[in-house]
Specification:
The chain has 111 residues and is mainly beta. It is 0% helix and 51% strand.
Length: 111
C-alpha cells in the first residue's frame, strides 16, 4: 500500500492550495478516505472524510465552508481543496485510507 501526498507549500493568508493523494496497493474505490493534519506541538486531527463513492463528506468545524474533499476513483486519487487559508491551517497534512498513512505534505500559511 502506498499513499503519496503532494501539493503543499507556502501560501499567503487568504490564498488557496489543492492537495492530492495518489493511492496504490489496495482497492481504492472500496474505501473511504480521510485527510488529517498535525501542527507543531499539537495532536494529529481529522480534517475531512469522504466515503468510497464520494457521496458523503464530513469536515472539522475549523475548516467547514473553506475546504472541500473530493475523489477520482478512476485515478485512485483523493483531493483536498483549501480556500481562504489562515495561519492556523499551517500543519503537515496526511491522507489516510485502508488503515494506512501517507508521508505528509507541509502547508505553511504566512505573509
Amino acid at each position: 500500500v502506498q499513499l503519496v501526498e503532494s501539493g503543499g507549500g507556502l501560501v499567503q493568508p487568504g490564498g488557496s492550495l489543492r492537495l492530492s493523494c495518489a493511492a496504490s496497493g489496495f482497492t481504492f474505490h472500496k474505501h473511504g478516505m480521510s485527510w488529517y493534519r498535525q501542527a507543531p506541538g499539537k495532536e494529529r486531527e481529522v480534517v475531512a472524510n469522504i466515503n468510497n463513492v464520494g457521496g458523503w463528506t464530513t469536515y472539522a468545524d475549523s475548516v467547514e465552508g473553506r475546504f472541500t474533499i473530493s475523489r477520482d476513483n478512476a485515478k485512485n486519487t483523493v483531493y483536498l481543496q483549501m480556500n481562504s487559508l489562515k495561519p492556523e491551517d499551517t500543519a503537515v497534512y496526511y491522507c489516510k485510507g485502508s488503515g494506512y498513512w501517507g508521508q505528509g505534505t507541509q502547508v505553511t500559511v504566512s505573509s
